[in-house]
Amino acid sequence: MTLPQGLAVLPKNERVIPIPWSAGIGADGKGDLRSINLAKIRNAYEQNRCLICGRRLGDFLGSC
Ligand SMILES: [Zn+2]
Fold first, then answer.
1. Are 63 and 50 in contact (CB under 8 A)?
2. Distance between CA 52 and CA 54 in Å, rounded?
3. How distant, in Å, are the alpha carbons of 10, 21, 29, 61 from that of 26?
4. How many angstroms separate the alpha carbon of residue 50 from the centre of ligand 1?
5. Ligand 1 centroid vs 35 CA: distance in angstroms?
6. What single-letter DSSP state applies at residue 58?
7. CB 30: neighbour CB atoms within 10 A?
8. From ligand 1's centre to the CA of 1, what distance in Å?
9. 63 CA → ligand 1 middle, Å
10. Whose CA is closest to 6, among 56, 61, 41, 44?
11. Which pLDDT does position 58 carry in this prediction?
């Protein structure tokens, strides 16, 4: 299965699942799908960024 460009560039966990840009950091220093990074949520809101990949959104807000 081919991942969309925004997901393909994200780091993957041990199960090869892309870690969203807005995910928190676990005790092992890696992205943790079970938590969120509140600073990135605020950054996404203020700068119109995608919560999945962190890229700037276009005129039509959503995810890319
Ligand atoms: Zn995106």
1. yes
2. 6
3. 16, 14, 5, 29
4. 5
5. 18
6. -
7. 12
8. 18
9. 5
10. 56
11. 83
User: Ligand 1 center to residue 52 CA distance, Å?
Assistant: 5
23 C-alpha to ligand 1 centroid (Å): 13
Question: According to the model, what pLDDT value does residue 1 have?
Answer: 75
What's at 6, amino acid-wise? Answer: G
**What is the token pair recorded at 54?**
């962190």
Identify the pLDDT of residue 62: 65
| pLDDT of residue 60 exceeding 80 | no
- pTM, two decimals, is 0.79
Q: pLDDT per residue over 1-58, tens digit each?
A: 788 887 899 999 999 999 999 999 999 999 999 999 999 999 999 999 999 999 999 8
Going from N- to C-terminal start, the domains of the chain cover 5-47
